[in-house]
Write a structure and sequence with these properties.
Elements (H helix, E strand, L loop, with lengths): L4 H16 L5 E2 L5 H9 L4 E2 L10 H15 L12
Parallel strand pairs: 1-2
Length: 84
């Protein structure tokens, strides 16, 4: 998407469609901060992928989430809703 205008156009269209339908849009497979910035600019504010964490056992999730949230400070906002 970063270097492919056609892919970026498709992503933008899907995000716009989701917003028109009052849906939460989740970008999956986000691996680079530059991709996260593009998605944020396209009004996609929920993302998951290796940029944030590798797959982990469920019992490790809450400890990781607490540590990750603390590391962000006031730089980013994370919702209280956790989807498993």
């Amino acid at each position: 998407m970063e270097n492919d205008p056609e892919a970026r156009s498709i992503v933008e269209t899907v995000i716009l469609l989701g917003h028109k339908l009052n849906m939460d849009i989740v970008a999956e497979g986000v691996e680079a901060a530059s991709c996260q910035q593009i998605l944020h600019g396209l009004a996609c504010n929920i993302a998951q992928g290796y940029l944030f964490a590798r797959p982990m056992p469920g019992e490790e999730l809450f400890a990781w989430f607490s540590q990750y949230r603390s590391s962000l400070g006031t730089k980013f906002f994370i919702t209280q809703r956790l989807v498993l």
